[in-house]
Amino acid sequence: MGFHEIRFPANLSFGSVGGPERRTDVVTLANGFEERNTPWAHSRRRYDAGVGMRSLDDVETLIGFFETRRGQLYGFRWKDWSDFKSGLASADVNYRDQVIGVGDGQRTEFTLKKTYRSGEHTYERPIVKAVLGTIRAGVEDEELLEGVDYDVDPNSGTILFAQAPDLNRQVTAGFEFDVPVRFDTDRIQTSVASFQAGDVPNVPVVEVRV
User: Fold this and answer.
1) DSSP code of 52?
2) Which residue has the higher pLDDT, 189 or 154?
3) Distance between alpha carbon 13 and the CA centroid of its chain, in Å?
4) Contact of 18 with 78, CB cutoff 8 Å
5) pLDDT at 197
6) Partner of 154 for a Cys bridge, out of 21, 102, 132, 177, CB 3.0 to 4.6 A?
7) What CA–CA distances, in Å, run from 104 to 11, 124, 151, 165, 168?
8) Which sign does the torsion angle of CA 192, 196, 202, 208 carry?
9) pLDDT (tens digit, 9 = 90+) per residue, 77-119?
10) Mean pLDDT within 68-82
């Protein structure tokens, strides 16, 4: 699948509408009970990039970005302003934000993930598009140095440690991340007159698996 490692202009995604969606199959039985199942292990996010358009210059930037992605052909990075950090949105990234694995004395490669919690239930979301320069990692209560103790591939969400973490020691990480998406349309329609009157184009964007 074609993917360009470039982020949709963050100032244009700010204010956009969107979020996660799930696919759930619901069957109502004759006795009124339900059976529910899902073929998706992970949610998929959708956004409307048009909401962030505030001027004709913004529209021109959007069209340029759309054209160079060839419409739906190439994916790109998207900053979800409601969920782009490993920890709280109001807090700075900390290497203790997420537990991404436990050492066994041999394993050196770990993938980034973000765990969501509600009560006793959790959901682990794979993070594949981390933001370069924001990734911090550690083992137990010791923060390690990037480029010395570990290397990062931000385009796959992988951390490679120079030395395997010891047995039963927690591997932690903090980071900012983008969502891999593509345009969900091959057409953008806008009008100078309608835009000046407060109308904005509808530009659907959908998450892709990479």
Assistant:
1) G
2) 154
3) 13
4) no
5) 55
6) 132
7) 43, 21, 19, 7, 6
8) positive
9) 999 999 999 999 999 999 999 999 999 999 999 999 999 999 9
10) 97
One-letter amino acid at 37 equals N
Give the C-alpha separation, 103 to 140, whole Å: 10
Query: Which of residues 200 and 56 earns the better pLDDT score?
Result: 56
Helices (H) and strands (E) in the chain, counts: 3, 17
| Spacing of C-alpha 67 from chain mean position | 23
Q: Are 99 and 171 in contact (CB under 8 A)?
A: yes
CA distance 107 to 80: 32
For the chain, percent of residues with pLDDT exceeding 70: 96
pLDDT at 41 over 60: yes
Please measure the distance between the N-terminal and C-terminal CA atoms of the chain and give it in whole angstroms: 8
pLDDT recorded at residue 53? 79
Question: Is the per-residue pLDDT at 204 higher than 70?
Answer: yes
Place of tokens 């619901």: 26
| Whether 152 contacts 176, CB under 8 Å | no
Helix %, strand %, coil % of the chain (to 5): 10, 40, 50
d(CA 87, CA 194): 40
**Hey, how many other C-beta atoms are within 10 angstroms of the C-beta on 65?**
19
Tokens standing for 65? 């970005």
Distance CA 177, CA 79 (A): 7
